[in-house]
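In response to the reviewer comment on reproducibility (Comment 2.3), we provide here a single inverse folding case reported in full, input and output, so that an independent group could reproduce the run without further information from us. The structure tokens appear first.
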């Protein structure tokens, strides 16, 4: 698929287990794509160069924000729902990216669109989690979600100056930050140092196969390839985080903790490692208590 083609579809990666959370707005087309085309990406949802739908939503203070033909700046739309487990990881990855490349935040409008908001406390919690980087907008009736055909959260949609969709990513994975960094640099016209461009993928075939399976959420199938790649050469900190996430998903948290503990101090992946460690510790099965031997009557 040629991303520059006017009719090219935006690649939206659906993580394992999301088929049951398909939005009604996505209709039969998206549902059939997930059920009968398990080898994602799923197309026919949003299209590159498609005009981004307009919306008018209120923020927590009741002020109306309009996104329409008057929009002349690149805009990043973040679709999320309260309690979404991957939203905090995505926000953390974006903060890390903007900390390293602050020029990727300049001139970029950022809206966090929240669906299914209940009490005011939820709104405040979301604003606290989002921080000053985002303006939180409320979509209580899912109108914007329907217009953008959102089928999974979190979803990021990058819109260019002419209100054309440039890229979209559904879900969170450890490669999201690098992919979005390159797209933002392109849309904003920012030059990146060679190390940040990510133009030279790892040449090792075992790792490439494992990465593809990892991105599709096929954890059991990805693990042998990661282990083989590890035997053939040291993994980068990011790749070690991916291996640890695989162990978490297949319910081997002790293996994940052993990998992640030394990575907390790493400047590149320390924040991610900490988040994954929290998940690993929560999924760790407590040791079964040793039964007390019965008393012997004498």
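Designed residues, in position order:
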């Amino acid at each position: 698929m040629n991303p520059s083609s006017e009719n090219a579809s935006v690649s939206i990666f659906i993580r394992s287990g999301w088929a049951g959370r398909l939005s009604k707005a996505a209709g039969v087309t998206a549902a059939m794509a997930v059920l009968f085309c398990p080898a994602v990406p799923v197309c026919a949802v949003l299209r590159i160069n498609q005009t981004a739908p307009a919306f008018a939503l209120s923020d927590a203070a009741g002020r109306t924000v309009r996104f329409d033909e008057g929009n002349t700046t690149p805009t990043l739309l973040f679709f999320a729902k309260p309690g979404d487990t991957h939203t905090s990881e995505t926000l953390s990855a974006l903060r890390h990216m903007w900390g390293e490349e602050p020029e990727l935040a300049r001139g970029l409008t950022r809206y966090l669109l929240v669906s299914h908001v209940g009490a005011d406390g939820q709104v405040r919690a979301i604003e606290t989690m989002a921080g000053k980087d985002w303006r939180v907008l409320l979509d209580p009736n899912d109108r914007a979600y329907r217009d953008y055909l959102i089928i999974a959260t979190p979803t990021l949609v990058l819109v260019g100056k002419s209100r054309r969709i440039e890229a979209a990513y559904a879900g969170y994975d450890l490669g999201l930050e690098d992919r979005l960094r390159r797209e933002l640099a392109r849309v904003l016209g920012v030059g990146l140092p060679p190390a940040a461009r990510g133009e030279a993928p790892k040449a090792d075939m075992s790792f490439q196969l494992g990465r593809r399976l990892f991105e599709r959420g096929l954890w059991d199938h990805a693990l042998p390839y990661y282990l083989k790649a590890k035997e053939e050469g040291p993994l980068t900190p990011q790749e070690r985080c991916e291996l640890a996430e695989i162990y978490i998903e297949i319910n081997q948290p002790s293996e994940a903790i052993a990998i992640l503990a030394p990575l907390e101090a790493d400047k590149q992946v320390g924040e991610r490692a900490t988040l994954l460690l929290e998940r690993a510790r929560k999924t760790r099965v407590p040791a079964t208590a040793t039964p007390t031997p019965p008393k012997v009557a004498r």
